[in-house]
Amino acid sequence: METAKAFGNIETIKIENPVDKIINQLKNLITTGQLKPGDRLPPERLLAQRFGVGRGYIREAILKLEFYGLIKTSPQSGTYVAGFSLKILDSIFTDIINFSKDDYASMIEARYYMEINAARLAADRRTEDDIVQMNDALLEYDAKINRGQFAVEEDMVFHIKMAAATKNSVLESMIIILIPDLIKVKNMVDKDICKDKNYTIDQHHKILDAIIDKDLNAAGDAMGNHLREFMDIRLSL
Question: CA-CA distances (angstroms) from residue 202 to 87, 107, 146, 225?
């Protein structure tokens, strides 16, 4: 009886994911002064080698840090540490790591309503170049699915290109930051989303067709239908 009571005090072990570990190590480099505001980070390839992880984890960590304004990325000159004070940095780093880590239901709900409105905005503001980029993303997605392969990255690219077509940088950043974490839902839930590959392909093209036609209502409805199964999963979490 006493033994059972003792084991009742054991705390559940929390396994930290690679992205959180990367963010924590970068935090330590900044708070100890080894990385200072304005310092440039090494390229993704080199960071991946140093951390011993795939470039996808580095990219996700950088996206999160960039979303919160802790680093700034310039296509011409690289990625730099932002000029926040250490007190503010410490607070924001904690928020990044704890942000909705276990609350996938809220993430799914946020994405659902965010992307419906993003699709409507994209239909209103898209350019011809946006159409080309979204269409290219779908062609790559379709080809991979038809070969019987997973097309998670291609799916993400389409949604990111659609978000870019909104011409709202805040909305685009929020969608970019949510999508990588939402992919994990597929591994959490014992459900096969979009079992019919042709159905999924058709949904994507309905979204794009409505955006091309500048039909705001149809674009929102098509995106809502596309993400409805995600919302159903939210109820089971």
Answer: 49, 25, 13, 11
